Amino acid sequence: MSEKVAVYRRENFNAAHRLHNPAWDEATNDRVFGKCNNPNYHGHNYELIVKLIGEPDPATGYVYDLKLLSDLVKENIIDRFDHKNLNEDTVEFKNLNPTAENIVVVIYKILRAKIDSKYDLKLRLYETERNFVEYPAN
Ligand code: NI
């Protein structure tokens, strides 16, 4: 019988962004994105929750060493996005609107490549306390 356990690690990063669709005129961008379309950008304190599901290793009792998971997230995500202007300073969002939805998918692709496929990976990204997204969706 499988004894799968979910383990979680919470990390934070601060970043600026602007939501904007260059194919639309100013009025449409303003109507759709509101304050998030502010031309001079604005910041969020993003909270990222990384969830891994797997079976505890018989030798360590760990599903995944959370210190190693923390290091992995810091090296690949926090160092890349923390204190950055997502639109201007990152290649990932040069041509991709940095909504929470798009950010979580970008982060997932980066982390998925670094974590053994025997683990299920799920991410939750809080843009504000009340607005958050999950990927994969189920
Ligand atoms: Ni915003």
Overall description:
Helices cover 30% and strands 28% of the residues. The protein has 138 residues and is α+β, with helices and mostly antiparallel strands. The chain has a single domain (5-135), classed as 2-Layer Sandwich (Tetrahydropterin Synthase, Chain A). It has a five-stranded mixed beta sheet. A hairpin with a 5-residue loop joins strand 4 and strand 5 (132-135). The protein is elongated, with a radius of gyration of 17 Å.
Brief summary of the model shown:
With 138 residues, this protein is α+β, with helices and mostly antiparallel strands. 30% of the residues lie in helices and 28% in strands.
Which terms summarize this structure?
138 residues, alpha+beta, Tetrahydropterin Synthase, Chain A, 4 helices, binds nickel (II) ion
How would you summarize the topology of this molecule?
Elements: E1 5-17, H1 26-33, E2 42-54, H2 66-81, E3 84-85, H3 86-89, H4 100-112, E4 120-126, E5 132-135
Parallel strand pairs: 1-3
Antiparallel strand pairs: 1-2, 2-4, 4-5
Bound molecules: nickel (II) ion.
Nickel (II) ion is lined by residues 17, 36, 42, 44.
